[in-house]
Amino acid sequence: MEDLNLKLEHLKNSLRPGQRSLADWQSGPLAVSAVPGAGKSYGMAAAAAIALSQNRLNRSRQLVLVTFTRSAAANLKHQIRRHLRDLNQPLGGFIVHTLHGLALNIASRHPQLSGLRLDQITLVSPSRRHELIRRCVDQWVIDHRPLYQLLMEQGSFDGEETERLRRQSVLRTDVLPALAEIAVREAKSSGLSPQALYAVAQDIRDDLPVVAIASGLYERYQDLLQAQQRIDYDDMILAALRVLNDPQAKAFWHQQVFAVFEDEAQDSTPLQTQLLEILSETPNGLNLVRVGDPNQAINSTFTPADPIFFREFCRHNPQHTMDQAGRSAPIIMEAANHMLRWVNESGLAGTELPFTEQAIHPVPLDDPQPNANPEPEGQGLEIVRPNDVYKTVDLLGQRVIELFIQGSDRNAAVLVRENKQGRFIAELLSDPERYGLSCDLAAHEIEVFDVGSRDRRSHIPAEMLTLLKFLARPHSPAYLKAALTLFLDRQLIPAQEINRLASRPEQFLYPGPLEPAQAETVRQARNLCAKLLRARWELPHYQLISFSALALHYDPAELATADKLSSRLFSLTEGAATMATTLPALQELVSTERFEPVEVEETSESGKTREETNPYLKKGRLTIITMHKAKGLDWDYVFLPFLHERVIPGELWVPETSKFLGGFTLAEVARAQIRALVHGQPIPDIDQAWQQASDLKIAEEFRLLYVAMTRAKRLLWMSAAQKAPFIWHTFDWQRQDSLQVLPPCPVIKPLQEALTNDSMQQLPQL
Questions:
Q1: Of 112, 125, 290, 614, which has the most beta carbons under 10 Å away?
Q2: How far apart are the first and last CA of the chain?
């Protein structure tokens, strides 16, 4: 016992004050708000190992730890086991889950209460979910003709047939699917049924009954899920809550669980929080430790998560702050603090502050953990304003070469806001001479790893399915539009209004002599479609995928993936491939995701570091990755190019094709109105909801920039070119004359001024 006490004391002495507050936890609720780089996962793992070693846990009860992703769960489990080995303690007594994994475990143990029988139901895949959304839209249109007609006739509408078909295409393929997706996600994850949502809709007096439409779409989605015996991720949480609402089942789980530790708590939804609170109940209150950072809440675009929920937990429970961070050089932390304070004071995101006023502080000189607050590279913060985005990539490449010549034992990353920007950088760096760049990373043996290119290869089965559906039914407006959208995404046809083309497939594909002459952009799109349709009848079926891959201008790695897919389909159809047999096989392949690689952060029981096991962090490599994917990672050198106002914070965008509905999107209006309901606030009208949605978007974009800035250890390089694409999605980088003068991200100027005045070192702390 004495030896254990010495080891425990040694482990505690390795922790910083904020981490020590976790290790000293005995019981009850605890909120820990941790700044970027504070080592919250390390602190949680150490706290778990200490609790297990001190034998506070009954052998029949476990410590449950939950986090956001499978890779984070695996990493946390590895860290706890490593601490237990160092303490010479048994490796059991705890379990690590994702939130959905925990819910599924609870629900599957009590199928009679949860209603989930895993031998009879299937988790709906993303592609199958999209198909269900499309079908629920079709059913809603049939059942609600008056409402659908109301949408069709918004704005100035004279009943002209071409415009009617165009609006029909926009509503059925864009507007209503987006509204259904948001309504299902926001309402269901908050515990609202379609009926409850519809009851609220009756009290909203807008000209357009957005919430009523949303509730109808939600209801049909639920009906389709049940008819196909499928569940989605929210159903797992709801099923687990049904179990825990039963007194006997709840008592059973309370006998199994001593306490719950949650990481990344700022990303939890209301139902997920409710699940953890019920599971951690004791006669004396909650044994619940929640660790997170509301300033790193960047998932509201994809989930109903909202930092307001974690902030409320912090306000109402004992709280500790982990505000000392050893990841970055002090000037990088000061830049992040300055940006945070400036954004809060600017009022750009409305009345609710985007950030919690929590500054990042360097650790003291006697910090117990090695390599804390490393020396900066040069000034540590560099802000450049090149002439255009091509010169930006050139300067970026030159700086990477300079840094890696000095030492190849470092790593670097370019963090982009969207994948199209990453493709642009990777393309220019792979062929610098073609684009007039003076940097040649290949000549210096510097590897460029474009994470987005691997992701794109994983999407090849879905892209092939899109094309084969079009080839099977070329007169389907939905299938034609999907194919044209794919061509636009891959820059195979010029940017144009595809809803108008897709609304009249026959006239587009087979224009008669009396039809008006097609514009050149339309002819290019039609020629590509015609080329594929000819191949459909002239080539053997087994060559269709390879031909389609060539038509999409796949690179060698993508072509190899397409060939692998073709071989797989040949075996699945038992060598008798026809369109009738290939389409179902390919649909099943995409729906079950059997062909796609699972992206997890590798961990090793051999003691290897993250840099040795994670391909994104490899030494001597330049990784190109999106800001969202970069969360939880860090690099010696981080480059943030293309920081323009249109990119961050940007603005909510109303597609030109749907402006007949008004200066807003139905999906974002529904999101704001449902969130107001969940938060117990008055339901805003359409104009107020649109403004609230805009403020939420701006706040999250600034938090995303904050996350990106705090990934850097030794150098943070930020850039906003004078000229850039107005819209990256449609940017054709072969045309260097298509750039426009654009203002930089609003935080660039105050950061430049602080850096120029040499005042970064004296910035006031929050």
A1: 290
A2: 44
The chain-wide mean pLDDT, for the chain, equals 87
**Can you tell me which residue has the tokens 């410590």?**
63
pLDDT tens sequence across 660-689: 999 999 999 999 999 999 888 899 999 999
CB 124 within 8 A of CB 233: no
Q: pTM here?
A: 0.85
What are the E-state strand segments in 287-440? 288-292, 319-322, 324-325, 361-362, 381-384, 412-416
Residue type, 228: Q
Of 607, 471, 632, 590, give the one whose Cα is nearest residue 34.
632
The answer to whether 66 and 102 are in contact (CB under 8 A) is: yes
Report CA 4 to chain centroid distance, whole Å. Answer: 43
Which of these, 646, 641, 536, lies nearest to 582 by C-alpha position? Answer: 536
SS3 for 184? helix
**Three-class SS of residue 333?**
helix
Q: How confident is the model at residue 346 (pLDDT cuts 50, 70, 90)?
A: very high
Cβ contact 710:336 at 8 Å: yes
Give the whole-angstrom CA distance, residue 560 versus residue 542.
Answer: 15
Check if the beta carbon of residue 57 is closer than 8 Å to that of residue 326: no
Contact 191, 238 (CB under 8 A): yes
d(CA 551, CA 530): 12
| DSSP H or E segment with residue 224 | helix 210-227
Give the torsion sign (CA, 300, 304, 306, 310). negative
Q: Six-digit token pair at 420?
A: 């199209």
Contacts of 90 (CB under 8 A, 6+ apart): 84
- Asked if residues 627 and 708 have their Cβ atoms less than 8 Å apart, the reply is yes
Number of other residues whose CB lies within 10 A of the CB of residue 278: 19
Do the beta carbons of residue 57 and residue 37 sit within 8 Å? no
* Cα radius of gyration (the chain): 27
Q: How far apart are CA 549 and CA 558, in angstroms?
A: 8
Residue 123: beta bridge partners?
231
Identity of the highest mean pLDDT range in 346-350, 521-525, 546-550, 635-639: 635-639
pLDDT at res. 438 = 93
Rounded Cα distance, 706 and 716, in Å = 12
For residue 736, which phi and psi values (nearest 5 degrees)? -75, -5
pLDDT in tens, 46-98: 999 998 887 654 567 889 999 887 778 878 888 898 899 888 888 888 888 88
Q: Which two tokens stand for residue 674?
A: 């449902």
**What confidence tier does 692 reach under pLDDT thresholds 50, 70, 90?**
very high
Determine how β-strand 281-282 pairs with β-strand 285-286: antiparallel
262 phi, psi to nearest 5 deg = -120, 130
- CA 595 from chain centre, in angstroms, equals 21
